[in-house]
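User: Just a sanity check before I run the rest of the batch. Below are the structure tokens for the first item. I only need the designed sequence back.
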């Protein structure tokens, strides 16, 4: 009998391929194969996903923003720059810009009126939270 624990001992982690490997192993056992043959049929665990470290310094932010006049506008732009600065440390981001309607979106690094370009990645959360201004 082969169990998930047997695969875990061989370095497998939970994920879509785990169930398929266990199924292959069970098929070998069901057809009279040995435990060793079943483990061989399960195969080696997939390579772990590559992880990337954040950049030490953010990439430059392009701004299409006028000069803030009121204290509220000044605080808004400072907050937008802080949010985007954290975001622009993500290594797959290759460019970014903020538009005249930019404003922070709570604690999210993505800002309203902000746009990013990425390379070899999809970031599902990389969208603006709300657009409700007079632009």
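Assistant: Here's the designed sequence for the first item:
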């Amino acid at each position: 009998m082969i169990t998930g624990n047997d695969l875990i001992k061989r370095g497998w982690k939970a994920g879509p391929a785990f169930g398929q490997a266990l199924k292959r192993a069970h098929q070998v056992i069901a057809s009279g194969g040995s435990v060793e043959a079943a483990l061989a049929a399960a195969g080696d665990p997939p390579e772990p996903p590559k992880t990337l470290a954040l950049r030490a310094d953010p990439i430059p932010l392009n701004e299409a923003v006028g000069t803030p006049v009121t204290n509220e506008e000044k605080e808004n732009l400072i907050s937008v720059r802080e949010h985007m600065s954290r975001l622009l440390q993500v290594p797959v981001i290759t460019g970014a810009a903020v538009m005249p309607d930019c404003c922070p979106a709570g604690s999210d690094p993505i800002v309203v009126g902000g746009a990013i370009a990425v390379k070899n990645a999809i970031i599902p959360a990389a969208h603006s939270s709300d657009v409700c201004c007079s632009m």
